[in-house]
Design goal:
four-stranded antiparallel beta sheet; 11 strands; single chain; seven-stranded mixed beta sheet; elongated; mainly beta
Length: about 120
């Protein structure tokens, strides 16, 4: 069973930076896609950024130019470097990983890590 463990959340002032990490354990394969979603109070969960095993990246418009996603395939670990943070980035950030097992897609989720940006 694949498990995702996140780290790196916390409290930061607006304009500051944080780096999130998410390590996947229990997988025999390099996971096809890894990424980050966030859920703010009163809002729906939204995609922040994803990256494939081949290095293709996708970002939400709201974080383009401020956040950078990267991954270490050998470790099945994904990172999210967050710069120029804004109060509206405050949310619980969830790590996500997905993989094709034959014709079946499976999603995995981490437990979430709180990011709070003060104004």
């Amino acid at each position: 069973q694949v498990q995702l463990v996140e780290s790196g959340g916390g409290l930061v002032q607006a304009g500051g930076s944080l780096r999130l990490s998410c390590a996947a354990s229990g997988s025999r394969f390099t996971l096809d896609t890894m990424g980050w979603y966030r859920h703010a109070p009163g809002k729906q969960r939204e995609l922040v950024a994803t990256i494939t095993s081949g290095g293709s990246r996708n970002y939400a418009n709201s974080v383009k130019g401020r956040f950078t996603i990267s991954r270490d395939n050998a470790k099945n670990t994904v990172y999210l470097q967050m710069n120029s943070l804004k109060p509206e980035d405050t949310a619980v950030y969830y790590c996500n990983a997905g993989h094709w097992y034959g014709s079946s897609w499976t999603d995995y989720w981490g437990q979430g890590t709180q990011v709070t940006v003060s104004s």
